Structure formats: structure tokens, C-alpha cells
């Protein structure tokens, strides 16, 4: 656990430092992109899809919620680190490689942007692997990074559209509205969608039994992220036919397919958690009668309400602690049953069991005898 704590501290320091540096650079770039009133309007319009998108990813993440600090770090990385790094790298590439505008948009941008966004997922895999349990976690973190990236990028695109510096038209309200419709209403999912492929690769890498399998999963996920991004950008500049046709026949079905896959993974997590906790109960790690109250989301809510009624905030907090520890134990035990436990499996497992034993005497589930305090 000492090593895990040290790696967590290093991850936090690296991400925080890079986020501050990226934010400073992006604030300068945004400030130079238009008048304050224009930038304020662009920021408000760019923010509109952020809430619904974040809510969708939080809904996917309900069975084993990821730490809110890490999810916020993903948003910050996408908004500041990935955007700043992408701008710098594309600028350097344009200077030394001489890419024209079409090449930069269709080829260079997808390669660079998916690398800068995916770097956060790689850092999670490297230093915070304990927080990753599979593909759904990878999709959730990738989604947060993509939402943050799209938010800041949309501010720049909306401001450029209004100012007429986007090379498309004279600017003004009409251009701003058209850009808002395309980027914030029709395709707000684009960046989360692209990076989700890298997230799936990271999720597969976590459960891979060999280094070769991990590298294959990571490289394949990144390649698919770049490919889907290239197809999108190429359509935007007219290289792959009509943009609307590409959107309707390729990108929308791809998005709907990923949504369906994510929902299926969410349902699979419930079945997996039930099987893992059943096995853990047979091994004496927790009471078998508690399992049904831990694997169903509505049952968890009912248990917390019951705890609140029986003992107020103190017992509700104890119930939340018990639920969190049990769910984390279940996901860890699942990896053990699959034959891919993390190196610190035993220590982490003992910690979760200790947390369960510490609060179990002070809580009860509906229908059970309320413990004496």
C-alpha cells in the first residue's frame, strides 16, 4: 500500500502541475482569440452540452463510482493539458513538416489530439491502475477527457466563427449559430466518442495477462481513436464525401453502437458484481444475506434510506462506507477469479475486509435486526 500511495501522489502532482501550465497557456490563447464579450458568449454556448454529457458518463459509472477527484482531473486534463499540448505540437509540426491546412486537419490533428487526450488514460494505467477495473471505467474516464477537450476547443471555434477568422465566412451571428448547431448540438459527442476507443483499449490492458496483450490493446484502441477522428475530420474538409452523409451513415451509427456497448457493459457489471460477491461470501468475507442489497442500485438506495431512518446521518454514512468497501472488494475479487489480480491484491483485499468489519456491527439492512448501539 505504501507503493500505491506513493504512485497516487506522483500522479496527482504530475496532473496538477500540467493542468496549471496548460490552463495558463490556454487562457492566453483564448484571450487573444477575440473580445471579452465574444469569448464570454462563446464560453457559455460551449458549456451547454457539458452538463448533459457529464451526467451520461456519471450514469454509466454508478455501479462502482470512480473517485470524483479523478473524474474532475480527467475533465481538467482534456480542457487544459490535451488542448494546450495539441496546439503546441501541431504548431511545431506545421513549421517543420510543412503540412497544409487540409493535411493538418484530416491527418495531423487526429494523431496529435488522440495522443494528448489518451495520455491521461495511460497515466492512470501506469500510476492509478487500481482505479481501473475494465472497459467501462476506461470509457468513463475517456469520456471526461473528451468532454473537457471539446469544451475548450468549442470556445475557440465559436469565437473564430463570430470573428470571421475561421476561414469559412465573414463571421457574425449567423456563422456563430451555425457553428454552435454543428459542434454543440449535432456532434457534442465527437471527442468523447473518439477517445472512448483508447479507453476501451486501456480497460482491456488492465485485465490482460501479458505485456504483449497490454500493448496490443493500447495500440489498437489508440489506432481506432485516430481512425474514427480522421474519418470525421476528413468529412469536415470534404475529403470523404458529403459531411451530412458521413454523419448519418457512419458517425451516428458508430456513436449509437458505442452507447449500446457501454449500456451492455453496465448491465454486465451488475452480473459480475453479484457473482464475485457471492463467491466472496462463500469464503466468509461478508455475510451472504448482504449481497442482494449491494448489487442492485435501487436496493442500495433503499438501504441508505433505512439507515437514515434508523440512526440518522451517522448510520447512513456507515452504510455508504460499507457499500463502497463491498463493491470495491467485489470488483477486486472478480479480477482474482479471472486470474488477473493486481500485484497488491492481498493487501487491498485485506483493507476492504477490514473496512467492512469495522462498520458492519453498526448497520442493518431492511428486514434485518437493528444492531444494539
Automatic annotation (TrEMBL):
Record's keyword terms, sorted: Hydrolase, Membrane, Metalloprotease, Protease, Transmembrane, Transmembrane helix
Stretches that traverse the bilayer: 9-32, 38-60, 69-92, 104-127, 139-160, 180-206, 215-232, 244-265
Protein name (record): Membrane protein
GO BP terms, alphabetized: proteolysis
Entry keyword annotation includes Ubl conjugation: no
Domain of life: Bacteria
Keyword Ribosomal protein: no
Organism, as annotated: Nocardioides daphniae
GO molecular function, one term: metallopeptidase activity
Amino acid at each position: 500500500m505504501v507503493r500505491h500511495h506513493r504512485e497516487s501522489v506522483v500522479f496527482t502532482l504530475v496532473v496538477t502541475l500540467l493542468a496549471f501550465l496548460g490552463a495558463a497557456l490556454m487562457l492566453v490563447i483564448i484571450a487573444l482569440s477575440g473580445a471579452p464579450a465574444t469569448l464570454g458568449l462563446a464560453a457559455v454556448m460551449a458549456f451547454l452540452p457539458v452538463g448533459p454529457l457529464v451526467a451520461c458518463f456519471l450514469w454509466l459509472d454508478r455501479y462502482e463510482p470512480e473517485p470524483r477527484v479523478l473524474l474532475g482531473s480527467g475533465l481538467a486534463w482534456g480542457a487544459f493539458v490535451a488542448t494546450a499540448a495539441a496546439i503546441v505540437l501541431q504548431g511545431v509540426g506545421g513549421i517543420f513538416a510543412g503540412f497544409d491546412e487540409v493535411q493538418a486537419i484530416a491527418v495531423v490533428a487526429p494523431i496529435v489530439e488522440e495522443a494528448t487526450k489518451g495520455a491521461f488514460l495511460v497515466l492512470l494505467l501506469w500510476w492509478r491502475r487500481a482505479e481501473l477495473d475494465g472497459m467501462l471505467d476506461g470509457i468513463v474516464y475517456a469520456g471526461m477527457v473528451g468532454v473537457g477537450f471539446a469544451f475548450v476547443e468549442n470556445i475557440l471555434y465559436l469565437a473564430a466563427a463570430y470573428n470571421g477568422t475561421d476561414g469559412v465566412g465573414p463571421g457574425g451571428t449567423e456563422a456563430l449559430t451555425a457553428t454552435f448547431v454543428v459542434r454543440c448540438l449535432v456532434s457534442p459527442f465527437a471527442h468523447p466518442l473518439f477517445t472512448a476507443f483508447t479507453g476501451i483499449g486501456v480497460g482491456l490492458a488492465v485485465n490482460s495477462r501479458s505485456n504483449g496483450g497490454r500493448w496490443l490493446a493500447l495500440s489498437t484502441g489508440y489506432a481506432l481513436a485516430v481512425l474514427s477522428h480522421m474519418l470525421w475530420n476528413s468529412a469536415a474538409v470534404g475529403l470523404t464525401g458529403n459531411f451530412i452523409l458521413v454523419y448519418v451513415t457512419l458517425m451516428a451509427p458508430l456513436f449509437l453502437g458505442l452507447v449500446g456497448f457501454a449500456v451492455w457493459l453496465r448491465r454486465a457489471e451488475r452480473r459480475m458484481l453479484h457473482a464475485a460477491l457471492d463467491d466472496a461470501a462463500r469464503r466468509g468475507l461478508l455475510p451472504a444475506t448482504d449481497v442482494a442489497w449491494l448489487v442492485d442500485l435501487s436496493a442500495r438506495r433503499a438501504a441508505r434510506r433505512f439507515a437514515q431512518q434508523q440512526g440518522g446521518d451517522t448510520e447512513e454514512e456507515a452504510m455508504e462506507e460499507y457499500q463502497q468497501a463491498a463493491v470495491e472488494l467485489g470488483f477486486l475479487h472478480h479480477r482474482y477469479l479471472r486470474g488477473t489480480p493486481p500485484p497488491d491484491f492481498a493487501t487491498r483485499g485485506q483493507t476492504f475486509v477490514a473496512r467492512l468489519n469495522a462498520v458492519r456491527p453498526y448497520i442493518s439492512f431492511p428486514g434485518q435486526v437493528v444492531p444494539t448501539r
